[in-house]
Design brief:
Blueprint lengths: L8 E6 L5 H11 L2 E5 L3 E6 L1 H10 L5 E3 L10 H10 L28
Antiparallel strand pairs: 1-3, 1-4, 2-3
Length: 113
């Protein structure tokens, strides 16, 4: 996945609860596109250069995430099926490992941050 400096993509800036509006204003002031406030996050569009700029300049963001895949699930089995079905070869080989950082708000998933 090789984005050029002018190819925009979706990103998510994680923040603390209550800081979403402030973070959204910071992003708009930096020049982010399509800024949308969420719960403990603000999503926005930008290119690779803007991703670096956001990491350096944002005061209220904890981290910037570039999602590679998203989906909705209703239960644990559906979660495992969708993760298993995703083509991970574009991101890592079979001899590599990775961690998933997620926040889930649901009574179906009780072992989440």
């Amino acid at each position: 996945m090789n984005e050029g400096m002018n190819n925009n993509f979706r990103m998510v800036a994680k923040t603390l609860f209550g800081f979403e509006e402030i973070l959204a204003k910071e992003l708009r002031n930096l020049g982010a596109g399509n800024v949308v406030e969420g719960v403990r996050n603000v999503s926005f569009d930008g290119d690779v250069g803007f991703m670096y700029k956001a990491n350096l300049c944002l005061r209220t963001a904890i981290k910037i995430i570039k999602p590679i895949h998203s989906f909705s699930v209703r239960n644990e089995n559906e979660l495992y099926r969708k993760i298993y079905a995703f083509d991970w070869r574009e991101y890592l080989s079979v001899d590599r490992t990775f961690s998933i950082d997620t926040t889930v708000n649901s009574e179906n998933f009780t072992h989440s941050l």
